[in-house]
Every structure is written in structure tokens, then in C-alpha cells.
What we know:
The chain is built from no helices and 8 strands. By secondary structure, it is mostly beta strands.
Amino acid sequence: MKFKRGDQVIVIAGNDKGRTGAVQRVDRDRNRVVVEGINLRWKHRGPRGQAQAQGERVQEEVAIHASNVMHIDPATGKGTRKRPSTES
């Protein structure tokens, strides 16, 4: 996989198309990445004993397929394909 944690990417397909963010987590087995602020879903959490009397709703990022994101070129700010370096 061509992505690693910390890479700046742009979403090229899906509901968040055109949005950018940093890669937080990479799942190489499933070919998916979690991008900061992208593909948010609501997680409903129930009460946890005396410490938390009520449940809550929390938004968290969900993994997106790696084919739906592209690296950002720092010079232009647009999506680019990452090529292997040709340095000897």
C-alpha cells in the first residue's frame, strides 16, 4: 500500500469527495485508511455503571477504501499519483 500514517490525502470518491485530511491509521489487510475528519459516523454508547449514568452519541472516523483517496502534492495542493523515486 502506498499510504502511511501522517500523509496528507484528498478524497476522490464518495460523500466526502474533495475534502482533505491526514491519514491516522492504515489497515493493510483490508486495504483501508482512516482519515482525520473524513467519513464520520455516529457511535451510540450506552451507560457504564455509576460513573456514567447516561449514554452518549459520539462521532468517529470510519475507514475508507484506499482507492478512494489520493496523495496531495504540496506544491500545487492538488491530488497526485505517488511515483517511486528514480534516484540511484
